[in-house]
User: What shape does this take?
Amino acid sequence: MHIPLFTQDGYGSTNSLCPPSEKTYTGKALTTGWGRYLPNVTDISDKLKIAEMLLMPIEDCIAAYGELDRNKQLCLKGKLGAKVCSGDSGGPLFQYVDGYAEAIGISSFGAPNCPDSLSVFTSVAAYHDWIDQYS
Assistant: This one.
């Protein structure tokens, strides 16, 4: 799986993310995106941003957004005011496991107007077999 890994200063590296080795993840993860970075501002970032996220129980996102697929979606909250916003959809969510960055999710959606709230990501592990078959 060749998903570019990005550095904190917004420049890409030549490294790739590994496919997920686990089905269940906990703790911290990182995401990157070009999306809006302030609430109620329509401009997207001209620099790739990175955000530290915390994996939350899926029940938290179900309470916020309604029905979700527990087996195919992940619930995350930005750490220290970080958030996923318009323009970030499709971006990677990755976590370091045994020293390797693993792709664990793909940004799907969050609350309108980008408040500090929960974000939903699609689980890469849920589609691992399909990815293997077609890549």
